Amino acid sequence: MRTIIDEILKSERIEASAPCRIDMGGTLDISSFYYPLSYLNPCTFNIALAMRTRVQIVPFEKGVIKISSKGFESAEYPVEKVPFDHPMGLMFAIAAYFQIDAIHIIIESTSPPRSALGGSSVAAVALIAAFNLLLEKSGRPMVAYDQIPLLAHGIEESVAGVPCGFQDQLAAVYGGINAWYWKGAGFSQPYIRKPLLKPEQYELFSNHLLLAYCGIPHESKNINGQWVKQFITGECRTQWVEIVNCTRSFVDAFSSFDIEEAVKHLNRETAIRVEMTPDVLDDTGSQLVNLALDNNCGARFTGAGGGGCVWALGNEDKISELRIVWEQILSEREEACLLDVNIDASGLLTGPV
Q1: Is 180 in contact with 167 (CB distance < 8 Å)?
Q2: What 3-state class would DSSP assign to 43?
Q3: What's the domain range around 93?
Q4: What digits encode the pLDDT tens for the residues 99-130?
């Protein structure tokens, strides 16, 4: 079997890619929240973006796994000693799961490193798909398509040492614009997907969006860890109930294409989170959010905030005006910039794109 895999890697391109996302209602996809809040039917909203993370598997030294990714120093270890507490520990853990060595895993992302767009989870999904392609070509059993996000989430949570959300993996696999309703164990499906717009509407809707990278990478454990601790110890329960209600009301307004109503709920959800954890927005993020409010738009940090990206929603004319003032703010910080908001309809893909 090893010889077959070696020959495949030498003769064929093993590659997969998946999109990142912007979101609202994140953290509700963590089991610490959605089980005790299940009576409220909690959901998370996200939009997959055509900023793809590509993973390629190429031949390498026998018995060794090497991983290279922009923004991180390349690392290589014997297959039996790959570290799961490494900055790329999640990728090593996935490689350990498949037990295929003599490989170099190359990760290329078109989104900024640690930009709170779900990058590590997206890379995990793409890596599993790349291994799947290799298994298929070698005649070995594959991971079922609908199990890929479950496997990616399970491995991530197992090595993270903290509860992890689930929405990033789902956006990466399925693409599009969706609300995800969290059910968990005890149901035939731990989540329910509700598509909110048709793919032919995506290009027009992208004119209602802005996305800014604030120039500072984020560390999601810091903020998420605070929220989980607060919630488990009984703090801020009423705020989380309101966050659930805001997110569900946002989804309802969005489904009706009522942008002004959706903006209202988006801004309220952001305000609640800032009240609980002021450092969820850095200085640039705070300026961007305030400017959005001034221009009758909604704005929210992506993921768990604390650096990374801020996205905005509004009517086309208001977004056009906001773009000008956001560009002025972003020009004052090195590496800060506006990012493309083309919506991805494809989700997970194998082979070159």
Answers
A1: yes
A2: strand
A3: 2-197
A4: 999 999 999 998 887 788 988 999 999 999 99
